[in-house]
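ping. complex inputs:
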Amino acid sequence: MSRKSLANYELTNEILELNLGPQHPSTHGVLRLILRLDGEVVISAEPVIGYLHTGIEKECETRTYHQVFTLVDRIDYLSGPAEEQCFAGVVEQLMGIEVPERAQDIRVILLELARIASHLIWIGTSALELNMSSIYMYCFAEREKILDLFEELSGARMFPSFWRIGGLAKDLNPEFIPNLKLFLNGFSSVWKDLDHLLTKNYVWCERLQDVAVIDEELCKQYMCTGPVLRGAGVPYDIRRSYPYLTYDKFDFAIPTKSEGDSYARYLVRMQEMVESISIIKQAVDQLKSGPIITDDRKVALPPRRELVRSMEAVIHQFKLVSEGFHPPPGELYSCVESARGELGFYLVSDGSPIPYRLRDRSPSFPHIQVLGKVLPGHLLSDVVVAIASVDPILGDVDR
Amino acid sequence: MEIEAVTQSLKSMLGDSLISEKNFKGETTLEVSKETLFATLSFLKKMPEPGFEVLMDLTGVDYLFPTPRTKVVYWLHHPKNLDRIRIVVFVERGTLLPSVCSLWEGANWYERELYDLFGVQFEGHPNLKRILMPDDWEGFPLRKDYPLTEEPVQFKHGVFPKIPSQIIRVEPNQKMEGN
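pong. complex structure:
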């Protein structure tokens, strides 16, 4: 099939302005697209965002660093652990805090589980929008197992709130590793099912190939990252380029494809799930025992058994809970690889327990912008596929 | 190191317009003046080969002391060396900045967001209107003198005015430098 462009069609020059409104089952959130159509051909598409803007960045300027975790969790609501890690990472880097190795390995496991969960939702909802609802059910059933793991660990399904500055809130519960191994053993057959159902499926291939081609030059102009950039042929992954936690110890490949269309992005995400499973297996194998949070009492709460014995522990606890800790003044940027791309936080600190400015560099914001550039020349039915293929999360876009 | 070579060549090109250079935790921040901003960014987009081709983030920080102004931050990324550099420019209320949409098309929405939330105006921008807030909103929310307001629930028998629920702390900690 040739590349989609306006030149392929006979246009009648009667323009219909169609509002793919914020309330729509297929726009992956409250995204509004003002489409100008000639028949079924899209002449121009203008994305309008802001329907989910809740002012998180302003609210972060009124809370202490520990309280900000609850806000920041919910920006990218399908991969909460990635946001928590990014925020914890930027504060720990600013203060020069060393996270113990066991906590780093557990953080890697939780991050990769969140990545698999996010990709499962992506495949499920994308297939649902193409009227393949049984795949939606398979993906959500598998994701339930991951959410059960999170729930047993911390009490909350999507937003475990498990990260603390300097480590984790508490250690893994005893059933976590056996249940995780059960999940890992069962996942490969589910992956094979999805692969068998979708990858060589005639309808899937015809609807996804050559749709929304985002090549490398466009990625550079529009700052696209993540599977969009890797689908265009650039092997850029923050876990390799700017390694954080213990990712430099693990052996994993960076899947890339060169076509840059939606099908390439689908294949990249499928392969990323396989690589995530491999990382989790390696992390579980080399999980050592040890402390779960840093010893620095100015930053991390003391363990409760110390409170009955030591006056200093009580004072540290009081200061940390009521006032918070004081990072050095300065500004810093730190990024992680979330399921959607480069997620970064730019933190400006003035030495007080409350951040002066916390900026969230979200991966989906430029991806929605590039849609407006790439959609002209496609048919109306390709618009849904195109929006789905860049995997936007409107919470991330609007904050 | 590549970044030092780049900053040296920038210093020789800009002379006095390079107001300050900071190195904090491995990140280089260069503060330039408004007039030389576009020339600096065009230079960095090409040097060192193949250049800081990606503008990863374009954002702002608002200050009220010593004068009310906004610091616009350009965070550039070099795809080959994986270096990153931050270019910073201070904008007083009501002054214009040159738009970088001609260098990076993707800066369009980022500049709209800066206008929407901080009130920074860009000349040469094709479509400078609000992006996140409603189109008829008054005021610029992320400025430090804009309070954190609550939207009260609209009851059947009346609409109640917005209450500023919390004033953002505006006096800076005395340790804060480079305001």
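The CA atoms of residues 125 and 170 of chain B lie 31 Å apart.
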